Amino acid sequence: MHSVITNAWKGDPYPIDTLFIFMANMAWNSTMNTGEVRKMLNDRDAGGNHKIPFIAVCDAFQSEMTAFADLVLPDTTYLERHDVMGMLDRPISEFDGPMDSVRIPVLPPKGECRPFQEVLLELGSRLKLPAFTLPDGSRKYRDYPDFIVRHETEPGSGIGFLAGWRGADGRSAMKGEPNPEQWKRYEENGCFFKLELPRSYQYMRNWNRGYMEWAQRVRIRRYGDPILIHLYSEVLQRFRLAAQGKWPGRRPPERLAARVERHFDPLPTYSLPLEAAHTDPIKYPLAAITQRPMAMYHAWDSQNAWLRQIHTHNYLFVNAATARAAGVEDGGWLWVESPWGKVRGMCRFSEAVEPGTVWTWNAIGKQPGAWGLAPGANEARKGFLLNHLITDALPDGTSNSDPVTGQAGWYDVRVRIYPAEPGEPQETFPVFDTLPRAPGTREAPVSWLAYVSGRISGR
After folding, report:
1. Residue ranges making up the domain that contains 170
2. Domains held by the chain: number
3. Is 36 part of any domain?
C-alpha cells in the first residue's frame, strides 16, 4: 500500500489509466515520503499528460487526498451505512468463542453520498467481474447488505462474512446456507453475535484435538494438525533454497535472490532493517516511531469538537535526558531530521520514552484548510507529520519494507534532533498551500468545531 502512488507514477509493473483510492489518505498521513508523493500525483510526462491519468477518491470529508482527485465520490460516515466486522476480516472474537458484529445505519445518507462498499459493488457489476455477476452477465447482488448475506467463500460452502443466524431457519452458526433475515437477527441482538465454545475446546487450542476438528469443520482452519512453535522453519528454508536454485518451481527475481537467501533464515535470527545500510548511525542516533491515536481512524474524527480539546496538535515525545543533551527544551520548537527530510514541531519531555527513541502521533497534523478546519487551526500550524522523514523506496530502488513479511518500514527510520533557532517561525514545517473549500460546500459553523461551556452568543 505504501508504494502504490510511486508505482503508479513509475508505471511499475505496468502503466495504469485509473487510480481509485478509498479509506486511505495517500496524499498525507497514509503515505511515506509525503512531499514527493504529492508531486507525483500532479506530475506530467514529456507530452504534458499526467503520469497518473485519472484519480478517483471516495471519502466522507475533504481530505488532503481529495484535492488531487479528478472525481470525488462522496462517502458516508459509519452512522449512515451498513458495516461488518465479520469472520472473514478481523473478527472481534473473545477467548471463549468466536464473535462478530455489524453496524446498522441510524441516519439516511445525505445528498449524493453512497457507502464506498456500494460503489465497489456497482463497479464490479458494471465491469461484469465473475464474483459479482450471474452466468448470464446480469447483476448478482442487489446491494451491500445482500452481498454480505449471500456471499460464500465458494458455492455451497456455507461460509460467509457473518457467523450468526445462518441457514434458512437462522438456527445455524459459523456454517450454513444464507439467511435472508440475518441482518434483522443481528439488529435484534444489539448488532453482535457470539458462539460460546464448549469448555473442553477453550484451552490449549493449539493442540486441542476437539477444537482443531471443530475449527476445520467450520473452516476457521484449513488443516487439523497441531499448531507448534517451530525453531526451524521448513517454509523459510524452501524460500532460501529457491533463491539458491536448489528447489524446483518458482524462483525469486534475480535482483532479489541474494536478499531472499540472506533474510529467509530457517532459524531464529536478527538483522538490522534494510534502511540501516543507507543511514549513518552516528549522525542519526535516534529511532523514530509514529502511530495513529485511536480517535484518528482514517482521520475521521478531525472535526470532533470534544476530541479537539485533547489533541489539536501533536508533540515529539523525547526522553528528558536525550532532549537536554540536544539542547531542546520541554515545550520548545525543534527540528527532527532524517536522511530523507526534516520537520519542525514541538517537543514534550517524557520519562516513558526510551532514551534512544522518539515518537509522535500520526494524522493529527493537517494541511491548512483540509477537513473543514480553519487554515490557522492548531492542527495545521502546530501539528506535524513524521511521514515526511520516512522514505517509501531505498536508494537501490527496492521498497522500504521488511524483507520477509513485506510490511512497510514505518518504524525503521533514524533521526537526529536539534533546537529551532530563536528567530524561526513558531509553526510546523513543511507547510503546504491552504486548500480552498470544495465546490458546493460551505464553511462549517464555529459551534461544530469548538467545544464550549454554555451557549455561543448569536448562533
Report:
1. 79-196
2. 3
3. no
- Kindly report which listed range (10-14, 22-26, 114-118) carries the lowest average pLDDT score: 22-26
In DSSP notation, 228-246 reads ---SS-HHHHHHHHHHTT-
What's the CA gap between 344 and 386, in Å, rounded?
Answer: 10
Residues 159 and 248 reside in one and the same domain: no
How do residues 316-347 score in pLDDT, each as one tens digit? 999 999 999 999 999 999 999 999 999 999 99
Say yes or no: 296 and 442 in one domain: yes
C-alpha cell recorded at residue 327: 539542547
Write down the pTM of the prediction. 0.89
Give the angle subtended at the CA of 441 by the CAs of 435 and 444, to the nearest 5°. Answer: 85
Q: Answer for the pair 161, 62: CB distance below 8 angstroms, yes or no.
A: no
The reply to whether 260 and 295 lie within a common domain is: no
DSSP codes of every residue in 99-138: EEEEE--SSPPPTT---HHHHHHHHHHHTT-GGGB-TTS-
Q: Indicate if 360 and 306 belong to the same structural domain.
A: yes
Q: How many CA atoms lie within 13 A of 244 on its CB side?
A: 13
Q: How distant, in Å, are the alpha carbons of 84, 98, 108, 276 from that of 162?
A: 8, 11, 24, 44
338 and 378, same domain (yes or no): yes
